[in-house]
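hey so i finaly got around to running the thing on 3-hydroxybutyrate dehydrogenase from Streptomyces sanyensis. pasting the sequence first so u can double check i didnt mess up the copy paste, my clipboard has been acting weird all day
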Amino acid sequence: MSAPTPPGPHDLSVSLDLGGRTALVTGAAGGIGRACALRLAAAGAEVRALDRDADGLAALARRAEGLRGTVETRTLDLTDLDAAESAAAGTDVLVNNAGLQLVRPIQEFPPQAFHTVLTVMLEAPFRLIRGALPHMYARGWGRIVNISSVHGIRASAYKSAYVAAKHGLEGLSKTAALEGAPHGVTSVCVNPGYVRTPLVERQLADQAAAHGLPEDRVLSEVMLREAAIRRLAEPEEVAEAVAYLCSPHASFITGTSVALDGGWTAH
Ligand code: NAD
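ok and heres what it spat out for the 3d tokens, dont ask me to read them lol
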């Protein structure tokens, strides 16, 4: 008897068709959010790209021309929580991505900055989920992808607000998963290690000061110290995982956290 023919690549490939779906991506003007907006639009989604950076959004809109789906931009500061909640109405897919970082020891961490980080990275996601759920529940389908971080699972010194917000986001995401399950709504965290984005470039100087190191040693001696794969991830690698989690194939993945961290959390 001859051996069975192994399946070819076509039989195994996953099609990411988000035609007919509306997707809201926050923090879409740069870095990971921009890559997610472009990836979801390439899969056919009608993307609503939200950010406080109007110039970055205009550049995104130009880049999105010609994709299968569309990208509609809206300038909004997520500290306006009521506006954030109403912006999420009517969306099938919600990618909570917007974020910011400040690197300081706790005793020097400005309380107002702590408050802002928690507002943008935890309270706004709650309000966006709250705004999105009625439509998702009415359709019996929805995808919530929360861009967390390795810092949703691990702490690093000098990042109290960021680590606190990401740990909170993990809890919010799990709760949304439990409540959303009977309505066909999944909620998942994606946990990147360090990704090549402006957020990382901006923190090199702060990390150097906090750790007492020259800036050119921060990448290898602080940021990539724990990773098995010692390079930065690219935003497109994160966007590909996000697109998969938004697809019909990911309907059983909920209430969990997907690490894209080059082996950091294997320790
Ligand atoms: P980035 O700075 O390139 O992009 C963040 C975007 O959020 C910016 O466009 C910014 O304008 C927007 N934003 C910030 N505050 C806002 C507000 N108040 N209202 C509206 N928009 C606001 O950063 P990034 O690296 O692409 O980060 C995106 C997400 O990924 C963040 O949640 C971050 O914590 C997470 N993350 C990043 C890394 C990394 O290494 N870059 C690693 C793990 C997780």
